Amino acid sequence: MNRETTMRKCHANAFRRWVVAAFVVVAVGAGVAQSQPQAAPSLGELARQARAQKQPANQDDSSSNRAQALAEELEHNQDDAGAPDGFKTYNAGDYKLRVPGPFTVAGHDDSGVVLNTAYRDGARSMVMIGSPVLFSGTNNDEGFEDFAARFAGTYSSSPGCTKTSVGGHGAYQCALSKATLLGKEVSGNAMFVRGAKSIYPVLCVAPSESYARDAYNRNPSNYNLRKAAARAMQRDDQSTRNAWQTCDAILKSIVLKEDVAKSH
Questions:
Q1: Among 37, 46, 76, 238, which lies 20 to 30 A Cα-Cα from 98?
Q2: Cis peptide before 220, with omega less than 30 degrees from 0?
């Protein structure tokens, strides 16, 4: 009797364990089945939701970009008003200047970005748009002149600097002969304009390498070749002079941002 009772209890316990296990499996399966559609929407649905969420922001960004582009275009048009024919405004951030356009970026050196201008009067100039240099010197010109000479000396071995002014600001202009910019032999001028707290350096030069001069000097006994080379040298010299004239206009067009802020 005890043995039979014990067997029935064992079978009952086994049956309960099976029922509990089956219930757990069914319950878990039902929970997964109910939660799966909500927790894991399809990729297509996710994509539609993302597009719906981003569309207003993208539209706002697009409108903002168009407004910014229009503002910049209006600013450029205002800046270019009254500029010499063919000149475009280059905004360096802390100052602006006018350069024959369309201009292109030729490269960068330690002091700033270098532009190739468009051809004007058969000549192309190179313009180094220098980064502002904080200047803590006194108000006398001695320290300013020394700074200009040292800076220009990194491009030319013997720059000659003279005092001048640009836009009502004190400035020094340094002549550069047999100078080097981006590995090219050039000649022209460096302008240093002094603002309230910084000095703004700008170089404007023309290539001075002359293949015609080299040909003239290498062929002393070839009359026809030397004659052709001499004519080419004259054209090169005229082109260089034209580039220097353009450089004069570029360097005189410098306007500091601090002056623009004062006028508003």
A1: 238
A2: no
Q: Is residue 58 part of a domain?
A: yes
Angstrom distance (rounded) from CA 185 to CA 209: 6
Q: Which residue type does 12 have?
A: A
Q: What is the pLDDT of residue 109?
A: 94
Tokens found for residue 228: 């052709």
What angle do helix axes 211-218 and 223-252 make, rounded to 10 degrees? 150
pTM of the predicted structure, to 2 decimals = 0.66
pLDDT digits (tens, 9 = 90+) for 19-35: 334 333 333 343 434 44
Residue with tokens 């058969």: 122
Residue 80 resides in a domain: no
- Hey, is 38 helix, strand or coil? helix
Higher pLDDT, 212 or 239: 239
pLDDT at residue 203 tops 70: yes
In a domain, 79, yes or no: no
d(C-alpha 231, C-alpha 213), whole Å = 10
